Give the backbone structure.
Amino acid sequence: MIFSTDHLRTLCAAATIAGAAAVAHAQEDPLPSWNDGETKSAIVAFVEAVSEEGGPDFVPVPERVATFDNDGTLWAEQPMYTQLAFAIDRVKALADQNPDWKTTEPYSSILKGDIAKAFPNGVKDVLKVVLATHSGLTSDQYAAVVRDWLETSRHPAKGAAYTKMVYQPMLELLAYLRSNDFKTFIVSGGGIDFMRVFTEEVYGVPPEQVMGSSAKLKFDIVDGAPVLLKQPEMDFIDDGPGKPVGIGTHIGRKPIAAFGNSDGDLQMLQYTCLPPGPSFCLYVHHTDAKREWAYDRKATFGKLDKGLDAAASHGWTVVDMAKDWRVVFPD
Amino acid sequence: MIFSTDHLRTLCAAATIAGAAAVAHAQEDPLPSWNDGETKSAIVAFVEAVSEEGGPDFVPVPERVATFDNDGTLWAEQPMYTQLAFAIDRVKALADQNPDWKTTEPYSSILKGDIAKAFPNGVKDVLKVVLATHSGLTSDQYAAVVRDWLETSRHPAKGAAYTKMVYQPMLELLAYLRSNDFKTFIVSGGGIDFMRVFTEEVYGVPPEQVMGSSAKLKFDIVDGAPVLLKQPEMDFIDDGPGKPVGIGTHIGRKPIAAFGNSDGDLQMLQYTCLPPGPSFCLYVHHTDAKREWAYDRKATFGKLDKGLDAAASHGWTVVDMAKDWRVVFPD
C-alpha cells in the first residue's frame, strides 16, 4: 500500500491529535497541589474563560499578562524577608572593613542581633542597608554574591535552601497560566537584581519579566570592560502605589490577573481588577501555622489588613492556605 | 500494510523534515531587501553561528537578546524626530488654552515656527515640551492622542503616514532575528508611551519589550477607575549612557546584538560588543540623499561622529544605506 503525501498528512494529523489527547488526559489536573474547592475552581474557570476563542470573555494572547508578588506570594517571608536575612549576613561579612558600623545605626543593631530595632520601617530600611552594602559593585559582581549566598544559606526555621522555600501550588499556577499563553511577570518590593539571580531557574520567569525595587546604576568602561555600577541611591521602590507605576513603565499594559499576599500588593490588584472586563485577583492568606505561618492584619512582614477588606468588598479570590493547598513546599 | 505507531512516527518525522526543508527553500532569503554583500553576509553569519547547536559560538535561546534604537534606525528621523513633529502640533493645538505660551520659550518660538531656536539642545528639549503638553493626562488618554495624531499626520517631505516611514530592511531583520529565537527590544531616546502605541503593530515588538525616556507616573483611583497620571517631571532619559542603564534595569541581561545609528547609541553598542563572546553591533549610516537622507558627523538629529570612529576601531558593521539596501521604505 502506497500512501500519498496527502494521505500521510492526514494520518500524521490524526496521530498528533491522538497523542495530544493522551497527554491532555495524563495531565488533566494542572494544579495537583491545590485541593478541590471554590478557590481552585475560580482559577480554572477564569483561565478557561479568557482562553475560549469566540467566548464572551476571550482575551487575545498578547493581553494575557499576569503579575505576581514574590515575598509571601511565591516564597516564604517569615520569620523575615529573605533579602533581609541576606542583608544582615552582608553587614556581618563586611563589618571588619567598616569599623564605624559598630556605632552607627542600623548597623550597630544588626551586629548586636536586634533586628526589630534595626528595621523599624520594614522594607524601606532593608533596602537602605542593601544599598549601602552593595554600592560600588558591578551588577555581575552583585549577582555572584547573591548566588553564593543562596547556595550556602539555609532558612533558620525550616533548614531548607531559600530557593526551596517556594510554594509548590504557586509554581503550578505559574506553569498553568503559561501553558494557556499567559506571560507571567514578578512585581515585587524586593531588589530587582536580587531576584533575577534565581527567578528563571526557580519560577521559569526570565529576568526581563521581573520588576522590583532598584538602585541607580551607572555605566562605565573599566579596563576596557563595560560595567553597570550599583550606586548608593534608590531609583525606584516597587511597593504599594509603586507597583502599578512599575507595571505601567515596564509592561505598558494592564494585567488581567494579579496575585499578592499583603497590603503592599493592594494597588496592583486594584489596577488589575477594578476596570471592567475579564480579570482575576487573588490574595494568598497565610492561615497555616502548622505547615507554614499564620499571619495577616498585624504582621511585621507581609501585613494583610486593608487588602483583606478590599478582597471581601470586590469579591477577589482569597486562598486559605491551610484549606486550599494540599502541599505547601516542593518535596 | 499496517503501520505500527513507531513506524508512523518515523514517517511523520520524515514528512515534517521534508516539509520544513521545502519551506526553508521557499523562504531561503530572509533579508530580500538587503543587497548581497559584506553587510548582509555579516548579519547572516552571526545569526547562523549563534544558532548552531554544538557550534563554538552557540548562544542559548534565553540569552539571544537584540536591542534596537528607533529614530534613524527603524524609522526616519529627518527633517526632525517624529515625536518633535508631534510635540509641535500639540503646542499649536493647546495654544488657545495656554495664552502665556505666546511669550514663554520654547513655546513662543514653536508657535512662530522657529524650531531651531526652540530646541537648541535636541532630544532633551523635545522631551520637556512633550512633558508639559501631556502632564495630567492618563496613560490611556495620552495613547489615544498619539494614536489619533499618527493616523492623521503625514511626513512633511514624503507625504506618507509616519508609521510607513519605517525601513523595510530593518523590518526584515527584526523578523529574521525572531525566527531564530531572538527576543527583540527597542531601546530609544524617544518617549516610551509614544512608541508603545505603534511598535507592536509596526515592528512586532510588544510594549513590554520597549524601553524609552519616560515621565514620572502617579497611580490614582478616579471615580472608581484606576489610572496612571503622567507627571510634569522626567523619570528617565534613555539616551547615551542611559541606554545600557535602561537595559540593565529593564532586561537584566546583556544583549548579544545591538543596532543603532547615532552617537546616542554608542554606549549601548559598547555594552553589547566590548565583552568577550559572540556579539554583533551594527550602525545604520545614512548615505542615501536620493531615497532617504545623507547625514552623519554634523547632523542636528541623529549625529553619528564618535560612533563612526568606534565602529571602525572595533570592526562593527556599518550599513551603507545607498549601497546595502535594495529598498528603503515598504511599498
Notes: Residues 1-26 of chain B have pLDDT under 50 and may be disordered. The first helix of chain B runs from residue 5 to 26. Chain B touches chain A through 47 residues (CB under 8 Å). Chain B is about 40% helix and 15% strand.
